[in-house]
């Protein structure tokens, strides 16, 4: 059985790794390296070669079972990370780090700020009350409407819940408020975030996420074709033809689209009505990323520096603006701060830039959720399967799990017995 997998992000790698023990698998990757959002940059910092992740960064074994299974199988080392969160409001001057009481009140004036105390109260109330949404499967209220109907303070909305969700999903505030509230709460509950204490200890790959990619590719029995620019994919009930720009057509028995849903639609020669409806319902947002060492993109007060730093400014009106302090997230031992900032390229001192990058992230609306429920209508039709983090919450485990599920469905369809 010859299987083509289009895309070498975690979804494609997870599918390829599982199938390669049972089928002849070829992974097509349009770029010159595998990985997708598992993207490690090697930069010179203080005279040292340092590996920095600019896409996927952290995970935890409890909530990332498929991904952790791969790391364990291929002996990939990982270490503790830091998941602290801070907000720096350049309009009002407010700054806080939610890690501890001391850092929460790193600005002494917050001790006398009644709105700040109301925000803390609303945080506790949200953790307690919002869980009720999980018992209401038909409740499609948006986050914005839920917060307004339940009289949460504007301070809590603007200075905490929206910045936090924006940082998690790399989405601008306007889109975050349209997210289904139940969806956000389900993610937070699943990741033990609906509580003040006893949160999971997050991990990061030692040496960067490229390490796990190298170990899987080295030890697995699948072929990878880099710089493979696919023109189109023709499908039937019996085979699949991969047409590239600079090579002969290749015929396979099955294909797994492990790219973004909109990319898959563009590659398919003749999409079905279901594919157009379901894949077309999932939208994406563009995010510019800058790897730099300009501390002006961190909170003004060093006491407020956290792993995730949401910077509220004019730029944040249009996009998610967050700076990841990589020295904390990846425990980088450098004197020079290593920072990854989203959608603030114009604010970074160009003399302090290592690299510019671009990523696309899925947008979650009720339309997205409805499309996810119909995934089963696509799998196996015209010898095709679809996987990607867009079938879940948009995180690395969602991609790893959906790749595995697509591979398992394919084997089930061809009658493969374990």
Automatic annotation (TrEMBL):
Ranges that cross the membrane: none
Alphabetically, the GO molecular function entries are: oxidoreductase activity
Q: Where is the Amine oxidase domain?
A: 10-265
Which Pfam families does the UniProt record give? Amino_oxidase (PF01593)
Q: Which domain of life is it from?
A: Bacteria
What Gene3D superfamilies does the record tag this protein with? 1.10.405.20, 3.30.70.1990, FAD/NAD(P)-binding domain
Q: What is this protein called?
A: Dehydrogenase
């Amino acid at each position: 059985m010859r299987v083509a997998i289009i895309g070498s992000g975690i979804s494609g790698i997870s599918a390829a790794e599982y199938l390669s023990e049972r089928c002849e698998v070829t992974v097509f990757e349009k770029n010159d390296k595998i990985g997708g959002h598992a993207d490690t940059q090697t930069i010179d910092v203080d005279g040292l070669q340092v590996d920095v992740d600019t896409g996927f960064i952290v995970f935890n074994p409890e909530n990332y079972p498929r991904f952790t299974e791969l790391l364990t199988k291929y002996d990939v080392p990982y270490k503790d990370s830091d998941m602290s969160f801070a907000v720096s409001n350049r309009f009002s001057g407010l700054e806080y780090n939610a890690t501890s009481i001391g850092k929460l009140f790193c600005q002494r004036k917050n001790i006398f700020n009644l709105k700040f105390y109301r925000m803390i109260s609303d945080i506790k109330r949200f953790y307690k009350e919002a869980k009720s949404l999980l018992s209401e499967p038909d409740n499609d209220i948006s986050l914005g409407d839920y917060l307004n109907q339940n009289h949460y303070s504007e301070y809590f909305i603007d200075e905490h819940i929206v910045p936090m969700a924006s940082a998690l999903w790399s989405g601008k505030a306007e889109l975050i408020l349209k997210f289904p509230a139940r969806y956000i709460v389900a993610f937070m509950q699943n990741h033990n975030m609906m509580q003040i204490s006893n949160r999971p200890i997050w991990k990061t790959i030692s040496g960067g996420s490229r390490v796990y990619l190298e170990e899987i590719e080295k030890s697995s029995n699948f072929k990878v074709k880099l710089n493979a620019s696919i023109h189109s994919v023709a499908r039937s009930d019996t085979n699949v033809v991969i047409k590239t720009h600079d090579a002969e057509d290749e015929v396979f028995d099955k294909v797994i689209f492990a790219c973004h849903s909109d990319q898959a639609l563009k590659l398919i020669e003749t999409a079905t009505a279901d594919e157009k409806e379901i894949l077309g319902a999932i939208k994406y947002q563009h995010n510019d990323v800058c790897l730099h060492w300009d501390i002006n993109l961190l909170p003004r007060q060093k006491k407020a520096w956290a792993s995730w730093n949401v910077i509220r400014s004019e730029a944040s009106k249009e996009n998610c603006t967050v700076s990841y302090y990589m020295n904390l997230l990846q425990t980088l031992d450098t004197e020079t701060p290593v920072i990854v900032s989203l959608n603030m390229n114009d604010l970074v001192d160009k003399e302090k830039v290592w690299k510019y990058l671009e990523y696309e992230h899925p947008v979650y609306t009720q339309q997205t959720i409805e499309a996810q429920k119909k995934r089963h209508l696509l799998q196996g039709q015209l010898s095709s399967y679809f996987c990607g983090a867009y079938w879940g919450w948009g995180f690395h485990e969602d991609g790893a799990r959906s790749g595995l599920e697509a591979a398992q469905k394919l084997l089930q369809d061809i009658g493969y017995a374990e």
